[in-house]
Here is the input.
Amino acid sequence: MPRVVRSAGRTVTSCPISVDPVIHLRGVVSVLGRFPALAGADLDVARGEIVLLIGPNGAGKTSLLRVCAGLMPVASGRVVVLGHELPDERRALRRRVGWLGHANGLYDDLTVVENVRFWARAAGAPMADVEAALNRLEIQPRLWNVEAGRLSAGQRRRAAVSAMVVRRPELWLLDEPHAGLDAQARDDFDELVREAVAGGATAVLASHEIERGGALATRTVQVSGGVVVADGLGSSPSSAGHEHPPAVDQPPAQERVQDNHERVQDNVEGLHGVA
Amino acid sequence: MTTALSTPENRTAVPAHTGSRFSRVLGAVVALGLGLVAVLGLLISPADEVQGDAARIMYVHVPSAIVAYLAFGVTALGSALYLWRRSDFWDATAAASAEIGVVFTSLTLVTGMLWGKPTWGTYWEWDPRLTTTALLLILFLGYLAVRGIAAERKVRARRSAIAGLVAFVDVPLVHYSVDWWRSLHQKATITRLSPTISGIMLFTLMSGIFVFIGLYLWLLIHRFRVQYLEDELAEGGLAEAIAERRREAGVAV
Amino acid sequence: MWRDARLVAGKDLRVEWRSRVALNQIVPFAIVVLLLFAFALDPDRGFLRRAAPGLYWVAVLLSALVVIQRSFAAETVDGGRDGLRVIGLDPAAIFLGKALAASAVLLLLEVVLAAGVMLLYGADFGSAFILVVVTCLLATAGVVAPGMIYGALASGVRVRETLLPLLFLPAVAPVMIGATRSFEAAINHSPAEGWRWCGLLGVFAVAYTALGLAVFEPLLEDS
Here is the structure.
């Protein structure tokens, strides 16, 4: 994995940005029982982007993320993630993706260290990374040997994130990542995402926190009714019914991926859901 | 990989009933055949020397048993072919055959018990074939329970196909173990079929088998069509649901 | 794949060890089943002793149901079955790992039940000790393999508590028959018969393990 280099307080990437999109969805229809959670969604995400998905409850944000993770079967449409055509190459994809869903994916009976170690071993990561990940998430050593079931919600969330981080995924798929974290932990988390992206990863997150998410993200995508209705740069969604978030200082990463955005915009078809 | 959904335009027109020329002809032949077998079995063929009139139950029992196992075989075949070919045709066939199989398996068990009372003295003698058939019924019911789980069509089909295949692998093992087990305690399997069955009794039995297989096929055709149409309808419903959802988003449908 | 299977097995066993469900709940459950049989069959008339092999295996099967349910329930407590899928392990390895862990727990239960049957029913397993051990090993494999298949199938479903017994118990009827006959052969000092039944148990175990390795991936995905 490319290393993050810090110079004069700014993070600088040391790996080239690839031309192939990390995520490429076309006309994806995905069904939950009888209900079409996604009704023809199109999305392109390039490497190094931090994409924020916003939209009302039930819009399909979670479904969109799950499709990208290969967790949700697709009834029709095309899905290519990290060069892997889904659903055929699901398993090869899984190792390269980090998923943080609503639930934590921890075993309540195992300690924090055992949980993270399990994820690390499954990904083939060295044991030293386990301690590094726990420290990075500011989980105090005294908690390391506590059973996951006994932690507070915020601690469990952080443990879940460290289990994801230790695998060094190339694509971070985050569903409401800030839920359950206090303000400090949220700032830490945002910094973590920026570091990872600077190191060559890509992140897509779904959040109701438009301000915080908008500050973190390089691009905001609006999802409604199972389709992508607006796919813009920066922070203002175009559809009516959503407040325009206040202007925020774009993070330094914004400049770095500006040329990527133009390329993506040229490539994205069906912004308004052509059937 | 791009897959297409059936839209109202590319679906064939939904028929008002599941009959067709072939099935009507088949139905007529089967009905006649049933009548013929009934007459032969109840009136014309002679009573058995040992068992008397009770032996006439075999004209229903044996064909039912054959059809029950045939139905199971078709379900297993449909499951395997679905997993190989992913065609909805085989999924619907497996499902239809399972339901019909339950009917014939139950019929086999009931007639077996009714035959048992006069011949064995009890309703149940742990006869190996009947015991295996009882387990077959439960396996069928398990398969139908798996089919009953609400899920998307492809998911349900795949899950049921696996359940069907796993059950199928079980049947020969069950049969072998039950047979071997019961043979330890009985000198020879109690066959209630007289070994010298011949002449008109044999003819009645063979006709009965053919007619029952015909009946099975007729039922299978109809049940298959109903299943297929239901699934197509649900899928069409899906296309409309998708359109509805896109409208909700204010997006071109 | 073996490395991954060991990883999963280790995780399952560690969860079991930490939560002690097998020790605190499943063992007492198994003992209660033995007691219920005694209540049903009137201990003073020698039925229990003669029926001991069969009753033993019924108790094992019922305990196996609970062990299997527990194995899959532990995966869904927090995060559904996403965890096992997202982690990117080979599904065949997950099957093998979970099967090994469940087998270990079940074998432990079998030892406890054997002690129970000897103490409570006065059963005596005779001198064919090896036959008894081999029977237990093969029967356990033959029970856990379909158990993992059906457990995975039933685990994502709302009616899982009733669906699993309906699917699992008829499927393992041959194991029930074979293991009981083998035990009876051991008790009656005719081990040759017992070894033949072990052959059947072996075939069953191999068939279902192969099946499980083949179909576990689609089962894991569909939830």
